[in-house]
Amino acid sequence: MVLGPMLLMLILLLWLGKFQLNQDIAQQADRAGSALARQISASAAEPLAAEDRLSLNMLLAQWAQNPMIAHVSLYSPNNRLLAEAGSEPSRQLRAPGQGRYPAAVHLQDQLAGQVQLTLSAAPFVQPAQQLLERLIWGLLLIGGLGGLLAWHRGRELSRQLSALAEWDNSPNYPAPGYRRRDELGELSRAMLAHRGLLPEPEPAPAPLPEPAYIHATDIAAAAAADPSPDTAGSDETPAETADAAPADPIDTTETEQDQQEEVAPSDTLTD
């Protein structure tokens, strides 16, 4: 269904390309033929004035060696043949366009003769034909490769559909092609869901808590707002410390008397 319109479009494009190519070749041949005819008429003016037919024949023979020129002839004003070179080709072997190109030969602003030039078609047509043949072969190669790929794709789709038809007779999980990301995968998953065999999707994992970052500025602000006991005691002035020191004096005399009283009974026991 798809290859038919594509092939028709390719044929239409080839026809349009060939038509445009022939038009360009014809214009090129007309320009070349007109220029060559003028050059030949200018070069033939001097020997024509001298009525030297041998020089005229040699001159035209030299021009006929050009592969684009098939036939060239020189006529007098009364249409009498004076010299010629080459052979007149048939209409099919002439160059596209006019094919024949006349040019007048003037001597002192008077008509002395006329040059008739015929171009050959081979130098103009053969390169275009070779290009067109290469284009056709390239398009045929591309079309063959495209057809081969389409046939392979169609065979794969047919095999997948046959597998789904066999699976529908005894459905189980998984279905053929349910992991595909194309229309066959959607069809397979839809058949699984219709049969109630499609597994529930796994719950998404809980997001991890974001780590708490403590900055140095936060630590300094917390220390200023809630000072510790060590820092609070260190804030006392030296004067307060000096006043508080004598509050609990140590009575050395009382402690010595208490020690003597404790030792005295032990001495009596030993006696």
Please, could you describe this protein's structure?
Strand 3 and strand 4 (110-119) form a beta hairpin. With 271 residues, the protein is α+β, with helices and mostly antiparallel strands. The protein has helices at residues 3-43, 45-49, 53-64, 122-169, 183-195, 216-225, 229-233, 238-244, 252-270; strands at 69-75, 81-86, 100-107, 110-119. The protein has a four-stranded antiparallel beta sheet. The radius of gyration is 58 Å and the shape is elongated.
Chart the SSEs and their pairings.
Blueprint: H1 3-43, H2 45-49, H3 53-64, E1 69-75, E2 81-86, E3 100-107, E4 110-119, H4 122-169, H5 183-195, H6 216-225, H7 229-233, H8 238-244, H9 252-270
Helix pairs in contact: 1-4
For the largest sheet, list the strands in their spatial order.
Answer: 2-1-4-3
Total strands: 4
Distance between the termini: 138 Å
Helix content: 55-70%
What's the alpha carbon Rg, rounded to whole Å? 58 Å
Mean pLDDT: 76
Number of helices: 9
Strand content: 5-15%
Instruction: State the secondary-structure class.
Output: alpha+beta
Question: Outline, from the CA principal axes?
Answer: elongated
Strand/helix succession: HHHEEEEHHHHHH
Query: How many strands, which pairing sense, and closed or not: the largest β-sheet?
Result: 4 strands, antiparallel
Ranges where pLDDT stays below 50 over 5 or more residues in a row are 229-271
